[in-house]
């Protein structure tokens, strides 16, 4: 079953650490975002394989925007 990774807050994507097809474990850092001048790691919600990355480095995101899909 696919799990959606949503933005926890408004911010900017600084770094994406995985690509589609990469295997991830629960709590692996998937990407880093900046919000209010603080960097926050975004972590995998489950074990699985990254199906899609829906954002690019430098993108601005709103809270609850879809960042990635993990199966």
From TrEMBL:
- In its keyword annotation, does this UniProt entry include Lipoprotein? no
Keyword Cytoplasm attributed: no
InterPro entries in the record, alphabetically? Answer: Biotin_Carboxyl_Carrier/Decarb, Biotin_lipoyl, Single_hybrid_motif
Tell me which Pfam families the record gives: Biotin_lipoyl
Q: Where is the Lipoyl-binding domain?
A: 1-71
The entry's keywords: Biotin
Q: Which residues form a coiled coil?
A: none
Q: What is this protein called?
A: Acetyl-CoA carboxylase biotin carboxyl carrier protein
